[in-house]
Structure formats: C-alpha cells, structure tokens
Amino acid sequence: MANLGFGLIGTGFMGRTHAIALQSVATVFAGVAAPRLVSVADHNADDAAAAGRDLRFERSTGDWRELLEDSAIDVIDICAPNYLHYPMSLAALKAGKHVYCEKPLALTVAEAAELAALARESGTVHAVGLNYTTNPLVQTAREIIASGEIGDAVSFTGRYFEDYMASTEVPFTWRCDRSLAGSGALADLGSHLVNMLHFLLGRPKRLCGDCRTVIPKRRVTATGEERAVENEDIASALVELDSGLPATLEISRVASGYKCGLQFEVFGTLGSIAFDQERMNELRLYDAGQRTARAGFKTILAGPTHPDYGNFCPAPGHGLGINDLKVIEVRNLVRAIERNEPFQPDFEEGLRVQQVMAAIEDSSATKAWVELPDETTGASQ
Amino acid sequence: MANLGFGLIGTGFMGRTHAIALQSVATVFAGVAAPRLVSVADHNADDAAAAGRDLRFERSTGDWRELLEDSAIDVIDICAPNYLHYPMSLAALKAGKHVYCEKPLALTVAEAAELAALARESGTVHAVGLNYTTNPLVQTAREIIASGEIGDAVSFTGRYFEDYMASTEVPFTWRCDRSLAGSGALADLGSHLVNMLHFLLGRPKRLCGDCRTVIPKRRVTATGEERAVENEDIASALVELDSGLPATLEISRVASGYKCGLQFEVFGTLGSIAFDQERMNELRLYDAGQRTARAGFKTILAGPTHPDYGNFCPAPGHGLGINDLKVIEVRNLVRAIERNEPFQPDFEEGLRVQQVMAAIEDSSATKAWVELPDETTGASQ
Amino acid sequence: MANLGFGLIGTGFMGRTHAIALQSVATVFAGVAAPRLVSVADHNADDAAAAGRDLRFERSTGDWRELLEDSAIDVIDICAPNYLHYPMSLAALKAGKHVYCEKPLALTVAEAAELAALARESGTVHAVGLNYTTNPLVQTAREIIASGEIGDAVSFTGRYFEDYMASTEVPFTWRCDRSLAGSGALADLGSHLVNMLHFLLGRPKRLCGDCRTVIPKRRVTATGEERAVENEDIASALVELDSGLPATLEISRVASGYKCGLQFEVFGTLGSIAFDQERMNELRLYDAGQRTARAGFKTILAGPTHPDYGNFCPAPGHGLGINDLKVIEVRNLVRAIERNEPFQPDFEEGLRVQQVMAAIEDSSATKAWVELPDETTGASQ
Amino acid sequence: MANLGFGLIGTGFMGRTHAIALQSVATVFAGVAAPRLVSVADHNADDAAAAGRDLRFERSTGDWRELLEDSAIDVIDICAPNYLHYPMSLAALKAGKHVYCEKPLALTVAEAAELAALARESGTVHAVGLNYTTNPLVQTAREIIASGEIGDAVSFTGRYFEDYMASTEVPFTWRCDRSLAGSGALADLGSHLVNMLHFLLGRPKRLCGDCRTVIPKRRVTATGEERAVENEDIASALVELDSGLPATLEISRVASGYKCGLQFEVFGTLGSIAFDQERMNELRLYDAGQRTARAGFKTILAGPTHPDYGNFCPAPGHGLGINDLKVIEVRNLVRAIERNEPFQPDFEEGLRVQQVMAAIEDSSATKAWVELPDETTGASQ
C-alpha cells in the first residue's frame, strides 16, 4: 500500500499531537505504511512555515484551501477551532478527500447532519477524533460487556468531570461563546462521554437533561468587563437506552480537583466494570461469581494481553499515555483507508453524539423528556 | 441527670446494634448517664426472653404495647420491620414517650406527615436512625462547606450503591413487597442519601426522577414461583435545591460489587470534597488555592481533631466502625433529651426525606419534573 | 459459666478502651457471659474514683495491689505505663490471677522471660494485648496463607509507619526515655509487626537489624532544655525465618503522613496478599491463576463471611473500627478462661516478640547478623 | 545544529522503543533537531533488513561493527542483550562515538569500571538508559526534596517488585544464567531502584544485603530438565547513605501481582513523598504543616506545571506513558551532545549502580556489612 499523504489544518496542540502520532504510527504498528506529512496549513503563513519545520511537514501554507487541491494529499486532518470543523469538513468531503476531524464534529445537529449525509455518499473514509475508546482497557471493557462476562447489563453511569472553568477567576474565552464553541461542557467533555456510552452499550432512546451555568458571568480579559457565559458549566441527564436500560450522565467543567475525570461503571447481573481516565491504565472488574469471602473489585493493569497495548510495550503495568491513544486512532484510520472499510467513530457517530448533546439541551430548556431521532442512516456502527 | 430507661422493640440485628450502643455510650462519652436497658419486646415472647438475656435488658415481653405503659421507660426504641415503624411511633408519641425510630420513618408521605405533626405537638424528643451523618468526617464535610473553605458550592453529586439484589438468584422477599417495604432502593438506601444531601446542602425545590425495576420478577422461595417485584431496583434524580444549585442522586440495589457505596462529592468555586462510606475513615479534600504543581486531592484520615472521634480513640488513622456511628447517635439522643432540645434527624426530617422519595417516584411515573412541598412545619433543622 | 470479675489498672485511654470492650462483649458475642467490672485502680485515688464512675466499675482504689487480694476479681487487666507491665504482671501471676497485659509485655528480654516462665507454671491464662491480629481480614489472611491459596510463601515484607515523632518540635517525653519506655519505635510499633509476622508465617531464625535515632535531641517541655533521645526512631531488619524464607521489617515513628501504617505483604508462588491497617476493612488478594487479561489485585471488603465480623454487623462493607478488635480480643480471653485453654498471644509470645526486638537492637549495635534463641518453652503457639 | 546520526544495535523491543523515541523527539520538543536513523544492526542480516524497513532506518547490517566505521553515525545506540553491553560500549568508545547503552551498563564492576574510565577520557557523551528518573513527577520529587519542602530528609524506603518469575512454571532462561544476565532481580530491577536512590538522595556509604533464590531450580524448555538458577530472585538491603541517612531497598522478581512496582517514599521532618511507577502519573505528597484536621496525603496528577509534561500535552491529568519517558531521555541525550555537556545518568553512574549491586551481593555472601568504594572518578553527578 502506498504511503498516505496527510494535510494538517491547525498548528495548535491538537495539531502537534496528530503530527506525533503520524510520525510514530508506522514504527509502533509493524505493517502500517508510514504516512507522508505533506503539508500543514495555518491562517498565518509564518506560523504555518514554522510548524512545517517543527512538525516536519514537506511544505506549508497560509491557506487551508490549498490542501484540497494538493494531489499528494489523501487525508485532510482538521485540528482547527471547533467552529471551523463544519466548513472545513464540508470542503474536504466535496474535494473527495478522506477527512479526519477533531471533535466535536460540528456546532449544531443541522451541520452534523449535513456532514454525515455528504460523508455517506462520498465513498471516502470520515473520522472523528473521539479517541478515549481506543484505550486497550476500554476496548477490553467492551469485550467484557459484549461477551456476557458480567451477565446482562442492568445500568450505566458515566461522568466526565474537569475543573478548567471551576474558578470564578477563569476569564471569558471562546469556550463561553456559543457561536464559536457551541455548547460548553457538553461539547468539550460530553461528546466523549456520549461516544463512550454508544461504544459500550448503544444509543439513547429518550432522555431528560438539565444544564446549568453556575458561574453566569466571567470577565473579558481585554476589556476587564464581565460578560454573560453563553453555554452550560454542568450538564446531567437521565437516559433510557434503545435496549431499555437506564443510564445517567454527569458532565461538568467546574468540578474542582478533576483534571480528566472521564469515569464510567457498567453494572450487570453477574458483575460490573469501572473505569477512570485519570487512571487510564487500570480497569476495575467485579465478578459476582467469586466465593463471597474472596470477592472484591479487581484492579487490572493494562498489558500486552489487552488489544493494541503490546505494540507499545511488551511488559504489563508499564503504562500507556494519552498520546498513545492517538497513535491507535491513526492506525485505525490508515487501516480503514487501506481496506476501504468504515472508520469508527465516523461522521454518523459524530451526528449521533451531536443529537444526544442537543437533546440534553432541549430537554433542559423545555423541562421535559425528549425522544432521540430514529437511526435513519444505516451503514455504520 | 437520671439514667434514661429504654424499651427496645425488635430483637433482630438493628436491635442488637442499638443494645451495643446503649451499653457503651456512657463509657465512650464521659458525662453521659448510662441508659437503663429496661425491657425488650418481640412478638414472640420466647425470642424476647432470649434477647433480654443476651442483650442484658432487665425484662422482656411478647407484647410491645406493654412498653408504652411501663413507667420506667422513657424512650421507645423501634427496630421492628419497616411497616411497623408508623403504628409503633404513633402509639409511642401518644403515650408521651420519646421515640427513637429506625429509618425509614414510614412507608408513605401521609404516614410520615401524621407522625411529624403529632411529634411537633408532643413536646418529646423524636429521632430517626439515619446515622451516616454522625460520622466525624461527614460532620467535618459539613463544616468545610458551611465555612466557605471550598468557596461557594456549585453542585452536589451523590450515590448510594449496594448489590444485595444484583443477582437474579436473590429471591422475592419482603423487600420486594410494597405493602411491607414501601419503595425499594429508595427506602433502603435513598433515605440515607437524601438525608445526607439535606445535612450538607439543604432541601430540593424540584426534581426529575427515574425509577427502574431491572429484574422484574424474582422467585418466591417457599413456592418456587416467580412473583413480580413491586418496587424499584434503581432510582435516579436530577435535582434543583432550594438554593438553586443542581444535584444528582443515583441509588441502586443492583450495583454489583458495592457493599456500602454511599458516596458524595460537593464542588465549590475554591475546592471540593468527596466521601465514600466504604472508606468511612477517609475524607478527600481538594483545595483549589494550592500552587498548581502541588495541587491534588488530599486523603484525610479520621482523627481526634474531627468531631467525636477522640472519644473513641486518641490516635488518628486507627479507624472507627459503623457501630461507633450508632454510639454517637445514641449520645445525641440522650443529650437532646437531657437538654430538652430537638434531635437531628427528627421526625420532620423523616417526613422531608419521605417527601423527596415520593417525589422521585411520582416524577418517574409522570415523566415530569415535580415540585417539592413548601416547608410548612417550622421548628427543626 | 460465672461472670468473670475484672480488675483494671490504669485509667488512661487504653483503660477506657478495655472498659468499652468489657461492657459490650457479651452483647456482641451471644453466649459470652458478661464480665463484671469489679474495681479500677489508679495511683491517684481521686482519679480512680472518677474513672470508677465514668467507666462503671463497682469500686475503685488508689492502690493497685488491693486488686490482687480481691476475691471478686479473676482477671488483672493491666493498662498502666510500659515500665509497670513487668512488676504488675509478676504480682498478678503470683497472686494466682489471670493476667491481661497491654503490650509490650516488658522492657527487656530478661523481664519477659521471667514472666513467661512464671506464667507457664501458673496454670492461669495470660494474655498480651497485641490486637491487630484479631482483625477478621487478618485472620482471613492467615487462612489464605495456611491453606495454600497463594501457593508456597516465598517472602514477607512488613512495615509499621507512624509519624507521632516526625516533627522536631515533638518534645522529649517518657517515650524517649529508655528506663520508662524500653526501646522506641520497636516497642510502640515493632511489637505489633513482629507479632503479625509470627501470626502469619512463624518466627525469625536470624536477622540483621539497623536502628537509627534521626532526631537525636528533643526539648524537655518543663525545662526548655534539649535532652538526648535514648531509643530509636527507625528500626529495620533483614530476617530469615525458621522456614528459611526471607522477610523484611521496617518500623518508623518519624514517617510523616502515616497515622497507623501497619502494612504487610506475603508473596507466594500462586499469588499474594497485602494489608494496610489504615484501610483495615480491606484485604488485597492477587490470584496468579487468573486469565492474564483479567488478572489484578482484588480489594476484598470485610464482611460476615470473614471470622467474627458478622457478630458486629450482618452486612459486608459497612466497616469495623479499631475498638471492635479489642472486643474480639476480650471475647478470646473470656473464652480461653472458660475453656481453660491457652490464649494467643500469650506471655510466651510476649517473650518471643521481645526477643526479636532485642535481636534487632543487638544486631544494630554489633553491625552483625544475630541468631534468635531456640524455642525452649514448648506449650503454646 | 546538524541532525545527529544514530546507529542502533538490537531489533528487539528496546530497539523498537528507541526507534519510536528517535522519530518523535523533534516533534515533541520544539528546537530539537530530528535525529537521523542511519543504520540498524542485528546479528542476523535478514532481521536487520526487516527492522530497517519497519523502524525506518536508512540502511541495515548484519555486523554491528560496521556502525563504528560509518561516518554518518554519531551515536551508537545499544539495545542488545545485557552481556553485549560491555564489548559494544567499549568498541563504540574506542571508535570515538557517543554511546547510548541500555541498562545495566555491564555484568560486573570490573567491566563497568573499565567503561567508565574510558568514557571519562573519551570526550564523548555516554548515557545509560535508566529512564524512570525522567518522569516529570520524579523530577518534581527531586525538586521537593532538594528545596526543603519536606524539611530535612530522615529516611528513604524503596522497592521494585515485579512478578515475571513468580511462578514455578516460568522456565530457565538467559535471565537465570549468570554469564548472560549477571545478577538477577538486581540487574533487571535493582539497577533502576539504585539509580533512583542516587537521583533523589545520593549514594550509599555502607550496606548490608541479603539475596535469595527462592525458586532454586527451573525447567529448561528445550530439554525438559531442571537447571539451577544462578542468580537471585529477591535482594534486600539496609543502607547508610553518604549523608548518614538510613535507607532500605527491596527488590523482587517473584512478587506476585506486581507488574512494574517501582515504589519509593522519602520521609522528612516536614513532610514526605511517595511514588509508585504503576501509577506513574501520580505523586503523593504529605505536608506536615497543614492544619491537623485537614492533613492528609495529596495525590498530585502530572500536568504541564511539572517538568517536560507540557511538551506532550497541555492539559493536566491526561497521562504520560512509559514510552514518553524514553522520548525525554533521547531529548536529554541530544541536548547533551549539542551542548557538549555530561548526560545523566552517564557511565559513571552506571558504574556506581553496579558497585551498589555488587556490594549487596558481596554482603549477602559474607553476611557482613560492606563499605562502598570512595567516589574516585570526579567529573559528573
């Protein structure tokens, strides 16, 4: 297979993370053809040039649209700010490129739906960078649930807590501006949690949500004036899944003390599993079939018997990091393109996540339970 | 102060726990007059006699109503099954006795309201055995919140998970029968969690609840036939407190692996606290004012600088047990009677807890947010 | 069986802890005859009288020797300062009483040997209050090792870390004075750890020890002058057990942050166990026979399937406290007397512990490995 | 600065890990010139060729000596089996190359001393791959100790537990053969722990060691026959540091349940720190200056305020992995070469580590305390 050419848009941190993953994926995963880092775009041509050097791309440009016309580029890799995900993905799909877009896919359901529809018809591979599910232990959690090891699932509880907005001193930024960020904690954190729920147990059928902006005003650094925050600090939901099971979701960007608190527990009739991203190399498993006097949650350390771990390290318990999850994601992308198979999570999943986020906001506004739309788009999942 | 005479109804485990606490309270807490263990009642007179011997009461009876007329008895201590809490408390109040009733206070709001109204007029001390809040570290948590150490509270999240009904093999018992148990996980576990929320942050104003019976039928041991479970395995709620703050509650009796998983977290603008009853001698505290490179959750071990701990042990980190919490509860009761002060949690609180439990069930049934009744009963809290 | 009469010497905290245990043991353990709290002695007669009232003894005295002649007293219960353990135990044995002495049994091996020899001939029950081994989970740990569940043991590592002397501001007290305390961290903490090692795996055959006084001088509060500390802050040892297995011991009273850090791990060819007294309701167990991808340490919560727990509480995970361990110890004592059986740990064990402590000090002084004396005293263990 | 050319010897796992680090270092650390992956050697030319392709080196060879004469190669990177570290390092130094050798530096003190002496005179950069100290939180631990944040250090306790040889079913491999592996647990694990001790608190002055082979025979897979294991499963030591402080070391390759259990605690007069490599993104810190009722160990999550973390990820708590530590190590190496500065840990440190390992073995053999050699080699550390 020929080496795929990547064109990266965005030279901020996600851009750098993608570049690291592109550079190491072929060494980590034997048999993967090394991606070509063809060109990097930034709206500032000088920044683009500097990034091109630092991140070791072949060339750079101040105009991302040039990447669309570059025949050496197979994949448009979008690490620009949230509000640009939609127009860039749209343009990339129309240009017939494969698209690898950071989350969230879009700011609204309408945008996401348009992208998903176009992607469905495009024949190209489309990917959303919701990478927590690539964790070897999260993959293992899905295996455990699917195989019946913990019996029939009876409920799910999930949280994503961080504290980057917990202080009243945190200023008003683009994250507080609906036109630039879309929703607040839901877009930043909730999108990952909803994707995780889908990955493990499937989709919500209906839900009741509650969104709160508990720090209603923040100071604009430039002007020193206070401005009303336009999206939620906290979002919670009671959920009924398609399977009929109950689930709860709690998302907060004002959860003091949490830095990456994506946590979930799945309860079954024969056991349960628990995961916490802040200890991403541990999976807790309870097997109800144990002799009572010896029963307890096990703490399983990630190791080479879990999917993909062994490509990074042959020894258990030595630990992967967050950037390693991106390498797995890139491997999945390259493989999907090579095999002409759908990537997961794709734009359909991006749309489904957006639908759940919107439903939580709608429900909160109307103080009523909300039904999720039927799945109408076939293909993937 | 004269030694208070106790008449205990119920010789099962809670009865024994109460007897242990009554026997040790005066030694643990200097200055507390040792309670007299006057009489113990059980509907079976032989069981009562045996318990009288084992638990070292002065006398016993097969008829609990005899305790009401016993002039040596100041306090009626009710450890009978849930459905008897209401008639026994009613009779005790009418007899002019102090009442110490295990939780839940009643099976319905109507029963609880009648008891609370009567108690309010009685001039006696009335107590509900919701003992988790007597934990020195839970008292400390309340101090931390009230003092502003973690700034202004912004949200609460609480769970009470146990797994005593997680297996489909667990038979149909009185706990599944609404006429004997009232609600399910809500009555057993939720009552504690709601009381905890009240204790730390105050009352709900409105809520949206969701109750689920995920194992709908269980086998009746005697007949071998399956019978429909009449109350919920899981109850969850989105809550808005009187203060306007958001809270979430999750309660489950089918949470495989959890044995006493009463957990809460309170988030504030300057920090947060977290507690887990399975590690009842630890309180986790995050102080957002720390230098970032040294910031982290602290694990505080219970010690003599926390309320009441030093009466059990002068050394920190040595650990209290669940039965010690009952000793503190009994000390609180004896002191309230001595000082003619209200006890907390009293029958008003028993009613408030029942109102929240009922609201969760109502909301689940109507699929709508429910308002909590105004506080109309003054006096306590 | 008649109710045993107890005479308590010492009204400080250990005295109170014993009194609590004496009062509740018969209620916790059905079938145990309630001890009589006959008399309490303190060298100050007023203190004795006050304690008699608070702790509810029948009488009190300013002269502990009166207890020896009191025919209502079966058991002399010694909670006086360390340097009095020897003369009081000696007198009690000579008076033909059962003896229940707090740890350490004596200040020197010679004293302990004299007591053990006398005890052996006495025909009475003799007990040393080394209570950590009564923990239901520690009993379970011993079962696991003895049954071969973790295969053949290959090594032991144990620590007892506390921080009550960690600050240089802690003044010189009796604990720093060899004539009053004997050794330092070894006597306070090491005695428990050595007893734990004996309990789980047996006796040392030889060892190499290292004792250090890392804060060599402390201020005498009364005079404001500095005085040289006369015993060790830290003691460590490499040990070879009678079985040939290697063990390590680390003991410190200057381990900042630890409040009751008695920890051990036992490794076997098929698994391992780990315990930490600061989480005394948890036992960690690793079973090497698990499928690798599901292998991990289990955290077992104490529950009614573990020895003695169910007498305190029928529900798992609800938690015992340090004082509950003393109740089990008292039950063991009463039962040993009733059945005329040896108690464990008895004065022989008190001697063996003292021998190990002395060997660590000797080895440290001579910078050489030291052999432990042969077991010469038969009977117990 | 020109891009440094690397010649890698060894295509096993460490070789791959090095290749990944070489490929990503320049992207992770802006300003670092990307290394050239010039040539890879393996004794099997076909393996070398395959590795050359997979790991993306410019060329490959079946003869590692060719690398020494390759003018495009600046650094000889040695990832061959332990017994080859010495001859390869020797040859590389003699060829005037910079040397980057995996641990342990050699099999004996004599070999290590020869290498250190030659390195000292070479004028090139020499590095040993003891990478655990590059962890941002371990660097932070050193800062905390050095700055006096925990007061004056009073003791160190360190362990490195793994279980790769815990089962009696693990066959006899090269690791059990002294001529190929040198010592056992000491070489594999102890070298890291000793380096950690040096890094944090300095060198041992004298020590008493105890080495044990608890599974004395293992089966040779090829022949089915048992063969005597030639090195230790467990090594422990009591240590006195140059500073006079006591330290203990415990190393085991038969510690069932541990996968990467490199743990240390440093106690000071004002606090303490604790680290566990299995939770490599957490540092536990106790500050004795806290108000007692709020005192407890903090769990600090790694973040961008800790050294080097921010180059991998701008968000705290997201987690680095073991391979990221190798990237930091390679950055340190490239920087040392660019600046013509010593690298730490260098061959001097490799020698010092070897001296401690040998002293533990000598002490164990002679059952006596052993003095460490004076530092005679100046230059580094």
Overview of the molecule:
The structure is a homotetramer of 381-residue chains. Chain A is α/β, with parallel strands linked by helices and 381 residues long. Chain A has two domains: 5-129, Rossmann fold (3-Layer(aba) Sandwich), CATH 3.40.50; 133-343 and 354-364, Dihydrodipicolinate Reductase, domain 2, CATH 3.30.360. In chain A, 33% of the residues lie in helices and 24% in strands. Chain A has helices at 13-28, 45-55, 65-68, 85-94, 109-122, 136-147, 178-181, 185-201, 322-339, 347-366, and strands spanning 5-9, 36-41, 59-61, 75-78, 98-101, 126-128, 153-161, 204-212, 217-219, 226-228, 234-241, 246-252, 261-268, 271-276, 282-287, 296-301, 370-371. In chain A, the strands form three sheets. In chain A, strands 16-15-14-13-7-12-11-8-17 form a nine-stranded mixed β-sheet. A six-stranded parallel β-sheet of chain A has the order 3-2-1-4-5-6, sandwiched between helices. In chain A, strand 14 and strand 15 form a beta hairpin. In chain A, helix 4 (85-94) packs parallel to helix 5 (109-122) and helix 5 (109-122) packs antiparallel against helix 10 (347-366). The relative contact order of chain A is 0.16. The model of chain A has no long low-confidence stretch (mean pLDDT 96). Chains in contact: A-B, A-C, A-D, B-C, B-D, C-D. Chains C and D meet through strand 7, strand 8, strand 11, strand 12 and strand 13 of C and strand 7, strand 8, strand 11, strand 12 and strand 13 of D.
